[in-house]
Amino acid sequence: MSPDDPARQQLCVRPGTVVSLVLRPRTDGRRWTAVRSSAPAFVLPSGWQLGADGTGRTSLRSAGTRGGAADITALAKEPDLAGAGSVAFTLHVNVVPHTTAG
User: Fold this and answer.
1) Where are the beta strands (DSSP E) in 1-102?
2) Is the distance from CB of 42 to CB of 68 less than 8 angstroms?
3) 80 φ/ψ angles, rounded to the nearest 5 degrees
4) Which residues of 47-74 are buried (b: 16+ CB within 10 A; e: fewer)?
5) Sign of torsion, CA 9 21 41 11?
6) 102 pLDDT exceeds 80?
7) Contact 18/60 with Cβ under 8 angstroms?
8) Degrees (nearest 5) of the Cα angle 85, 17, 102?
9) Which of these, 22, 64, 23, 25, lies nearest to 44 by C-alpha position?
10) What is d(CA 32, CA 38) in angstroms, rounded to the nearest whole number?
11) Exposed, middle or buried: residue 76 (CB in 10 Å: 0-12, 13-18, 19+)?
């Protein structure tokens, strides 16, 4: 996915922030299957749930004191196919530490 892709979004948060990610049901017949982090030390997804209506929900918790970045990817696939699915949504999360007076 390119940075200009509408399926790629960006978010900037402070350390220790918790964000709820809600993925609406897909209209193309594919279903959300999982959410992954490219850098769990900076942003960790937890509590993945898939509702009966196809809505996916998870919490994203950023690192408590460190700054960094992670790509959160949501996978989707056809319900009758085996495998993990392919990336259907990407959220780039920057964790920016508080500035300190020197």
Assistant:
1) 8-13, 18-23, 31-37, 43-50, 56-62, 68-77, 86-95
2) yes
3) -95, 10
4) ebebeeebebebebbbbeeeebebbbbb
5) positive
6) no
7) yes
8) 130
9) 64
10) 18
11) buried
Token couple for 65: 């004191």
Instruction: Give the pLDDT of residue 101.
Output: 61
> What are the residues facing 75 on neighbouring strands?
34, 87
Phi then psi dihedrals of residue 95, to 5 deg: -100, 115
Among 66, 72, 71, 70, which residue's Cα sits nearest to residue 96?
66
Please give the full DSSP string across 22-37, using - where no structure is assigned: EEPPPSSS-EEEEEEE
C-alpha 100: how far from its chain's center?
29
Q: What is the pTM of this model?
A: 0.84
Of 12, 70, 72, 74, which Cα lies nearest the Cα of 39?
Answer: 70
pLDDT of residue 1: 44
> Token pair of 90, please?
């990407």
